[in-house]
Amino acid sequence: MTSKYKVCQIAFDFEDDSFELPPNIQEELINDCLQRVWSCDEEDLVDEITEFYGFCVQNIDYEQKNSYIESQLSDDTPTLLKRESNLSE
What we know:
Layout: E1 3-12, H1 23-35, E2 37-40, H2 45-53, E3 57-65, H3 67-72, E4 80-86
Antiparallel strand pairs: 1-2, 1-3, 3-4
């Protein structure tokens, strides 16, 4: 089932044998990812992000957005279900 996810923290593998992405561009990509809402199946989230940015995800912490709960609760009530994954383990 397709759901919406908000990334809270993420680490990419920005380097290979001969190249490392400059730190300022790394920060821009991370900030862009944190501002997006990803709509996909949970098992596809890492693949979607990797394909979108072109860098492998090393570690990710994300929350599932629940549209019904968001529409029913006030603005100061937490509305996200937290998920965490460390892909390096």
